[in-house]
Amino acid sequence: MKQRAKLLNFRGLVEHRHDADEQLAAPGHAVLVRRGVDRSLALRCPDGCGETLTINLDRRTGPAWRVYMEGQTVSLYPSVWRHTGCKSHFIIWRSRIYWCDWDDSFVRTGEDFEQRVLETLTASWLPYATVAEHLSAVPWAVLSASLTLQARGLVQRGSGDNQHCFRLAHQAP
After folding, report:
1. I need a surface site. Which of 79, 112, 116, 133 has the fewest CB within 10 A?
2. Are 30 and 65 a contacting pair, CB within 8 Å?
3. What pTM, to 2 d.p., does this model score?
4. What CATH number labels 111-168?
5. DSSP assignments along 42-108, one per residue
């Protein structure tokens, strides 16, 4: 039985994609390809299927993910959803891999950050990625804070077209 990785093991930077291969020995191993700008993230699929994924980070070549380096941790936005191969779906936040088919809840961000998110939200629906841009934060951190605020009854989460949005909860007069 294959073993899913729970952590991203960041192995460093290279200039060319083919230079990353020898550093991707196990599920969850990752190497950032940077030549002037971030080009791609080479990642041994954390599902344990054995495939190596090349995740585009260069917006000049079309739709691209964003990578966030915070100290020794790596975050990637949006999620990685494989439509071929093992068909895994996962989120990478703070070098932890969150599996979208498991009941895997985010770690809390802390009250100070939750307060910053609360102060940014309005009565109108705002995508959590937009709030993250405004706060110069990783979108997963804003999602985590927003879910905590929702559990406390302070914000509402949208549905349908607004499923990735939050707004302030309606307050009784």
Report:
1. 112
2. no
3. 0.87
4. 1.10.10.10
5. EEE-TTSS--EEEEE--GGGSS--EEEEETTEEEEEEEEE-SSTT--EEEEETTEEEETTS--PPPP
